[in-house]
Amino acid sequence: MTRTGLWPSVAIIAAAVILPSLLIAVTGGSPVAALQALVQGGLGDATAVSQTLLYAAPLLLVAVGACCSARSGAFNIGQEGQVLIGALAGAAAGLRLAVPGPALLLVVLLAAALAAGVWAWLSALMNRLRGVDIAVSTLLMTFLAQQLVAFAVTTPWLLQESRLGDAAALPQSNKLPARTLLASLGDSPGLQLNLGLAVSLGIALLVAVALDRTRWGFRLTMAGLNPAAARHAGVPVAAVSGLALAVSGALAGMAGAVLLASPLSTNRLQPDISINIGWDGLLVALIARNRPLLTIPVAVLFATLRAGGSFLAATGVPSYLVDVVKALLTLAFVAPAVMRRRTVAA
Amino acid sequence: MAPEPALRLRGITKRYGTVVACDGVDLTLERGEIHGLLGENGAGKSTLMRILLGLETQDSGAIDRDGRTVTIAGPRQAAALGISMVHQHFSLVDPLTVWENVELGRSGPVRRAAARAGVLAAAERYGLAIDPDARVGTLSAGQRQRVELLKCLRRDPAVLILDEPTSVLTQAESAELFTVLRRVVAAEHRAVVLISHKLAEITTVTDRVTVMRAGRVVLRRDTAATTEAELAREMVGREVTLGAAVGVLPRAGAGAAPAASAEAALRLRGLTARPGLDDLNLTVRAGEIVGLYGAEGNGQKSLGDILSGLTVPDAGTVEVAGAPVDLRRAGALSAAGLGIVPEDRHHAGVVLDLSVAQNLVMTRLGDVSGRVFVDRRRLRRRARALADEYGITAASLDTPLRHLSGLGCWSPPSPPAASTWAPSRTCTHACAAARTTAWPCC
Asked: B261-338 architecture in CATH?
């Protein structure tokens, strides 16, 4: 099984490296220079590593959430929207609630998780009441979320920034108070470890244990693999997978709050605050085959590509080449699994 | 000299890890005979047939078709060689119509009128009345079996394999099936392999019979020269009481039934549900087996769904051991001690991607876990005990169930009285624990 699955993977990973190189060469760039830029920008020095780890935190949160829902059989692909809803709720809580001291940060994170969790759970509800496909509804809810955030930051009585003098107000919220921001955990020369990373690592471990060691995880996995058998074994499948979907949304929402409160953003709610973290996090989970612990290295890899991507432009190679690499990598890991499943089925 | 047999298997051997599924199996199949293949689950029948269909490749041994040695690399090639199988679990597409299902898998353009006419002609020829435009999803099990059979016969196979074809059929439907098979063999000179657990079927329908046990052929005989008792003995490997141990056709007076106690283990009062259940009252006492008899579609499925906790009835109550059960709570019936053997075990009984051990403890997760955590050591110990108790042969209990040979290993050799209906280990265990079994059959 493993042997037959390995070679296609190796071949496609090779393709993931070679194809972009060809693309670069064809468009007149230097593949070597591009690779150097990627590595330099992602891992080159303490600043680059710091940037990579900043990206890794929200990616990881989204990915472990995706593991939960996918394992339960509810395929959530609306993380991008859930990230936005999380950021929206987090911003609202951070700007409007009068919670004293650093406790406000906790409130921001929890508000984001709660709002996005309920948001995702709506899809489970629609599925239960009207049989709406979960993948479709979570995806479509993303567009709704984008509209909501855009509305909130352009509407003065909602979250749009306060007007100062005659300056026009931009479509963004006020800056979050400093006590709600995710602090840096010490600066050993140049290297910054953000609190957000610690939070997401902790949650990844927690989810890993929950999925693999607890009754909840066992029942969730069973519901995902064979709902009929799970029902026969007394598992309330709809409730279990609905909860998994909510957890998945909650973690994506928390990723939104992390984006909002970390140096990755201007600490203001903006329509593009999610910076595709939701989509990428979903890919991370796919590559990690829904195993929470495996999402950690994969999230770091994707974060490296992201951090390095901004350095690409300097070599004359468009930075969206990184997206091509990510897509090919995902294919490399997902395609063999799908092909194998087909052979088993035949 | 006699003509070459339609099919001859010579020394077929197949291993899965340390488990030998087929061990030097020889089998000769003549044209114009119905050949019974008998054996317990895990005896190697299914593996052998999978090899014939090109779904598995033998480790050693050869297959001759009409005297020529052939290699069967895949299902397409098996079809080209004229080997076709009616699967135990129907391989039909529910939303498609009958003729569409029959056509499925043939290459070339689809010609609706010709296909419909072909189905009608074949249906007429074999006496398998069926509406070619009916949606398969709306058909009963017996009708689906007809479609499945037509699908095979339309490909004009020289060798037709039927894997436990009667497991979902009523007696009348089974009789009809065997009439068709007789015609196929006598008039068209095809060879038929009939795989079955039901000894009565084997002795009345087949011409010759081969019995397999633990991957080997242990008996090969003209059916006329053998008896049910001999077949049962060879199949299990020891002297058995017919009916009680092998789970064959129930017979009056088989074994001494323990006296039923007065206590009601299961009491159904006024159960009403759609479709088919209207004010059903039923009492099952400890120590007794209650059969529900009736043609398919008369509420058995609704009753099964309710007792499995899959649906909540419109009205009525279920009491287990005298205590009413809240049917709206998931798992309440199971917790109350009611075990259910689902009708379709692959679909509803097991999770193929979980390990053998996990499947064994699935319905009683509470036994191997605390409030929150699953205790892996307790889980393995419990699974090991169950596997030993029921003789489950798997290389490792950590193997995903999917990798077991044809799933044959999964079923217990001879649990009390229930093996025909109770193939899933987990469920039989649950039944044994609850001491009360209720299953709808038709």
From this structure: 3-Layer(aba) Sandwich (3.40)
Mean pLDDT of B331-354: 74
* Nearest beta carbon to residue A213 from set B352, B362, B374: B374
ipTM of the complex in this document: 0.77
Candidates A232, A241, A343: best to mutate against B (most CBs of B within 10 A) is A232
A213 vs B contacts (CB less than 8 Å): 373-374, 376
Q: Max CA-CA distance within chain A?
A: 70
- Domain ranges across chain B: 7-82+157-236, 261-338, 341-442
- What the block records as the tokens of A38 is 């990627």
B308 near A CB under 8 A: yes
CATH of A51-161+170-308, one of 1.10.3470, 1.10.10, 1.10.599, 1.20.120: 1.10.3470
Q: How many interface pairs between A and B have CB atoms less than 8 angstroms apart?
A: 81
Q: Is B58 on the interface with A (CB under 8 A)?
A: no
Measured between CA atoms, the residue of chain A closest to residue B377 is: A213
Answer yes or no: same fold for B7-82+157-236 and B261-338. yes
Supply the CATH classification number for the domain B7-82+157-236. 3.40.50.300
Model confidence at B424: pLDDT above 80: no
- pLDDT for B338 equals 78
| Per-residue pLDDT band at B350 (split at 50, 70, 90) | confident
Nearest to A243 by CA among A225, A214, A217, A213: A217
CA neighbor of B31 nearest in space, from B126, B132, B160? B160
Q: What is the mean pLDDT of residues A58-84?
A: 96
What is the pLDDT, as a whole number, of residue B438?
34
Domain extents for chain A?
A: 51-161+170-308
Identify residues of A whose CB sits under 8 angstroms from chain B CBs: 1, 213-219, 221-222, 225-226, 228-236, 239, 344, 346
Local confidence band at A28 (pLDDT 50, 70, 90 cut-offs): confident
Q: How many Cβ atoms sit within 10 Å of the Cβ of residue B237? A: 12
A225 or B292: which leads in pLDDT:
A225
Contact between B195 and B48 under an 8 Å Cβ cutoff? The reply is: no
Q: Residue B41: which pLDDT band, with cuts at 50, 70 and 90?
A: confident
Chain A's closest residue to B406, CA to CA, is A344
Nearest CA in chain B to A224: B351
Question: Is pLDDT above 80 for A149?
Answer: yes
Q: Do A235 and B358 touch (CB under 8 A)?
A: no
CA B368/CA B426 separation, integer angstroms:
14
Q: Of B215, B221, B248, which is closest to residue B232 (Cα–Cα)?
A: B248
In chain B, residues with a C-beta closer than 8 Å to the C-beta of A222 are 351, 354, 362
